[in-house]
Write the structure tokens for this entry.
Amino acid sequence: MVNFIVKWAINGVIVTLLMMWFSDADFWEAALTATILTVIAYIIGDQWVLRTTNNTIATIVDFLLAVVYLLIAEYIFDWGLNFGEILIISALVGIAEFCFHRYFLQDEGTTAS
């Protein structure tokens, strides 16, 4: 549970602040979007992919999940995010995820690659 809260805090800050900076999303829309992305990434990226592969693959999956999820959210809510801004947000999430995975794997007693 602590790992999820750490991930939520890190991704929440990145996604919420950058979505508010780049788009017409208000705080609550951005925070809800960040929370849903964190839940999806935690289940798929951390609990499934990271446990069955390695940090590099899990980071790529998290980056791609962020891109696809933010593209869908932007389309639904019409926030005015362009593809470049979505890539910037997703890349920063990917960098944070890489670091988080290293922490997560150390906490689990596994080595990161």
The mean pLDDT is 91. The two ends are 23 Å apart (CA to CA). Helices lie at 2-22, 27-52, 55-77, 83-108.
